[in-house]
Amino acid sequence: MSFLQVNGISHVYLTKTKAKEAIADLSFSIEEGEFVSLLGPSGCGKSTLLSIISGLLQPTEGNVIIQGKTKHKPGESMGYMLQQDYLFPWKTIEDNCLIGLKLTNRLTKESIDGTLNLLDQMGLYDVRHAYPDQLSGGMRQRVALVRTLATGPDLLLLDEPFSALDYQTKLKLENLVSATLKTHNKSALLVTHDIGEAIAMSDRVILLSPRPGKIARTFQMPSHLRELIPFDARNDPEFAEHFQVIWKELDSLEQSPT
């Protein structure tokens, strides 16, 4: 059985005057340790799908199975990393990273040591007593990643976590996140508008159609690209070929009448 199964998910948003279908009969799976990206036009339901998978939103139809379970609490066995870091400004970096463990009553010497080790791996140990406003945007996102990993999630949901960063910092964090997930054998689902980011980081790229979001096409990345760090993958001769194919398909979807 796959690590994550999304089965026939549909979701409709209701307002006082009309109903808007965000996702229609969406199904796919993710294996343990696999990194999958969702690409698609704005408004195709990518972020809605992450909210459903996380348990924060109940779908109109369909279900999500994670490690064989259809019932899961919001955030259970999952980490959610967003575009904004949402760090508490009045708490130190260390305290921000420990907040998830405190909320789930798993704050032990072992879990604290594990979190401090993650901070060290991310090059943040020396600023653990600093406050968020003393750090750069890239450092804050690294803190957000440590906070996400500190609770030991099996699945990471990444909603455009690098889109607000400058390009150089973005590339560095792509490498860092990719290496960290491979080291810990974590499964991940990334929502992004960046075709290059999806190709460089993913084992597989799922392209969604305009609203309501449906799977238009799935692209399996070649094995030699998947073995490279994202920066090197961007410089591989085949990278441009895959970029052009996905770009043309996405452009075609965006130009199609809805």
Give a verbal description of the structure.
The chain has 258 residues and is of the alpha/beta class. It folds into two domains: 4-77 and 158-255, Rossmann fold; 87-153, no CATH class. The protein is built from nine helices and nine strands. It has helices spanning 46-54, 93-103, 109-121, 137-150, 167-183, 195-201, 223-226, 230-234, 237-255, and strands at residues 4-14, 19-30, 35-39, 61-66, 78-81, 155-159, 187-191, 204-208, 215-220. It has a six-stranded mixed β-sheet with strand order 5-6-7-3-8-9, with helices on both faces. Strands 2-1-4 form a three-stranded antiparallel β-sheet, covered by helices on one side. It is globular. The model has no long low-confidence stretch (mean pLDDT 90). This is Spermidine/putrescine ABC transporter ATP-binding protein. Residues 4-235 form the ABC transporter domain. One of its GO terms (molecular function) is ATP binding.
Contiguous low-pLDDT stretches (5 residues minimum) are: none
Strand order in space, largest sheet: 5-6-7-3-8-9
Helix-strand category: alpha/beta
Strand content: 15-25%
Number of domains: 2
- Rounded mean pLDDT is 90
The profile of the biggest β sheet is:
6 strands, mixed
By CATH, the superfamily of the largest domain comes out as P-loop containing nucleotide triphosphate hydrolases
Query: Could you give the order of the helices and strands?
Result: EEEHEEHHHEHEHEEHHH
CATH topology of the largest domain: Rossmann fold
Shape: globular
The gyration radius over C-alpha positions equals 19 Å
The end-to-end span amounts to 35 Å
Pfam families: ABC_tran (PF00005)
InterPro entries: AAA+_ATPase (IPR003593), ABC_transporter-like_ATP-bd (IPR003439), ABC_transporter-like_CS (IPR017871), ABC_transporter_ATP-bind (IPR050166), P-loop_NTPase (IPR027417)
Protein name: Spermidine/putrescine ABC transporter ATP-binding protein
Domain ABC transporter: 4-235
